[in-house]
Amino acid sequence: MPDLLLELFSEEIPARMQGKAAEDLRKGITDGLVAAGLTYDSAKAFATPRRLALVVGGLPLSSPDQREEKKGPRVGAPDAAIQGFLKSAGLTSIDQATIQSDGKKGEVYIALINRPGRATVDILSELIPNVIRSFPWPKSMRWGSASVSSSSLRWVRPLTSILCTFGPETEATEIVPLDVDGIVSGNITYGHRFMAPQPIMVSRYEDYVDKLLKAKVVLDAERRKAIILAEARTLCTAQNLEFIDDEGLAQEVAGLVEWPVVLMGRFDEAFLTIPGEVIRATIRANQKCFVVRQPDTGALANRFMLTANIEASDHGAAIIGGNERVVRARLSDARHFWQTDLGALPDAGDYAQEAAALGLDLAKSLDQRMGKLAHLNVVFHQKLGTQGERVQRIVALARQLAPLVGADPDLAARAASLAKADLTSEMVGEFPELQGLIGRRYAELQGEHPSVCAAIEDHYKPLGPGDRVPSDPVAITVALADKLDTLVGFWAIDEKPTGSKDPYALRRAALGVIRLVVENGIHLRLTDAVPRFGEDLLSFFYDRLKVQLRDSGARHDLVDAVLGAGGASDDLLLIVRRVEALAAFLKSDDGTNLLAGYKRAANILKAEEKKDGTTFDGVVDEALIAARGAPEEQALAAAIAVARQAVSDKITAGNYAGAPTALAALRPAVDAFFEKILVNDPDPAIRASRLNLLARFRAATLPVADFGLIAG
């Protein structure tokens, strides 16, 4: 089967855009092929700093013939309707249509339209220019003399050539004729910008990849990344050092080079007095370089790994030297920021009022930073006050939450008062990604309690599904206070997430609260613990809890079932434990059969209640059952009484796994009842008694879960 090879060659494609651009190209072309009636076996896109490429395998030589029946007006319809039908169907006379009987309209005209297939090359000649002209670059430009027209081609950087070939694997391919704003397609590409800039003639994908490789271009970004990581590890091993993996940086660097060459540079050991996180952030952000460490101590080494895009004649000496000069300058800046942050602020005496409100010690540098943040009246949100006011709320909430979490209230309040202090530091101003972590380092240097230091760094966590959850009680307390204050505040001013929009990351904050309490085993009644925590916000938490459980493989319908039972509505851990217990129960034979029995009872009751409007409340005539009830009926009544008490005892004792298991004792009696008993007895009194007995069975399950909300 023929393959399509397409390459769009431009002056530059920024690394941050390459991955999405490759996917957009693949989707745009393959969607167009499918719309044109063409099938294909495979499609893979690639990106380098100068090219987007796509190979589509297994295309047919032409699209299939299509036959369509187009229904027209009824026979005898007005002439205008007939003429409109003829025009839309491509007919010249109504005699070319057939007549069929339609149950609603009577006899109607039918046009049988045959559309012959088109050559795939012709389809590609139309499709590809349309995809190029409408390409969804986040930023694009016009260039040259044509740029005066608003209708001229836009591309991320000037598009200079288009390679497009089509043909079978074993025969000669042909150039797909394209013309996009004067850029005509061909079978020519170009190798590495410096090492092999000559034009290269190619015919198909395998030929293309092989010739590019010989011309110092590695087409696949994943392969470039693997080369970078492998070479970096090898160089480190040779120097008895350990490479520090950085997946995100490796992906970014792979987008900066077509021919990766890894080199090792060094910096002055004196800079190692700066925290390792600062060194790493500095070298990563400014030079896109990796750092390494000593394998025995784990401390950073005064080396860094850089990736060049050329095999230099001096073996990279000039490239290394240039990077070392920049790294030296940037680390000098970082050391200055670090030393400045550790010094006293000249106007710290002006922060006395703020210090008093937050319990700060202005003899300490980090306290001064917090005093400055409050004194500057930096606005957190127009309707929610300043950062200083927010910190006061977090301090108060942390002190209130601490006993519930098992933390020392004074340590929690101290940590909360300093948690945002590093936002005014020089270091965070330069490297925002270090907020929290730098605050911890400064707190350690001024002798704060280890739990306070940990909380300053960890109170932002968890930031996402894969992020670490704090385990220190003080850190948990401050993290909860920070997130809950955010949620309650934005709910109070009606700034809630809508659809896909969540500008204040409130969904992430709610999921963070859920993970904090569940993964640390904390029973926390939110509406009691947090002022102004309303039912609407609680419903939002229920939705996030369902997402969390679904993502972890649990059934989210069980959340509704447990919530429908009541009693645990604002204790998230309790809800999760009851969901887990219910899920385990329903996987057992007893659980499966009891659920089936419940559904049968509920359906009978629903039908009867709908029939005559009577509500069955579970109040049974005990004397009637004793005197006239069948043995199976009497057994069920007795089993329900025992199960209700057992379930109540389990729940009171906090044995949530045992509560649904206690219901399992009902299964034999329920099975026997449905096997032997006619519910709709001719005697109205017996019939009503038996329906109320089923209602009692239904109610007996409710303390565990609303079984009616369980799917299946």
TrEMBL record:
Main enzyme class: ligase
GO BP term (any one): arginyl-tRNA aminoacylation
DALR anticodon binding domain ranges (all copies): 596-697
SUPFAM superfamilies, per database record: HD-domain/PDEase-like
Pfam families cross-referenced by the UniProt entry: DALR_1 (PF05746), tRNA_synt_2f (PF02092)
An annotated GO cellular component: cytosol
Subcellular location field: Cytoplasm
PROSITE patterns in the cross-refs: AA_TRNA_LIGASE_II_GLYAB
The reaction(s) this protein catalyses: tRNA(Gly) + glycine + ATP = glycyl-tRNA(Gly) + AMP + diphosphate
GO molecular function: arginine-tRNA ligase activity; ATP binding; glycine-tRNA ligase activity
Entries under InterPro entries matching the protein: DALR_anticod-bd (IPR008909), Gly-tRNA-synth_bsu (IPR015944), Gly-tRNA-synth_heterodimer (IPR006194)
Main location: cytoplasm
Keyword Metal-binding: no
Entry keywords, A to Z: Aminoacyl-tRNA synthetase, ATP-binding, Cytoplasm, Ligase, Nucleotide-binding, Protein biosynthesis
Taxonomy, superkingdom: Bacteria
EC id: 6.1.1.14
Subunit structure: Tetramer of two alpha and two beta subunits.
Family that this chain belongs to: Belongs to the class-II aminoacyl-tRNA synthetase family.
Protein's recorded name: Glycine--tRNA ligase beta subunit
Species of provenance: Candidatus Raskinella chloraquaticus
Designated gene of the protein: glyS
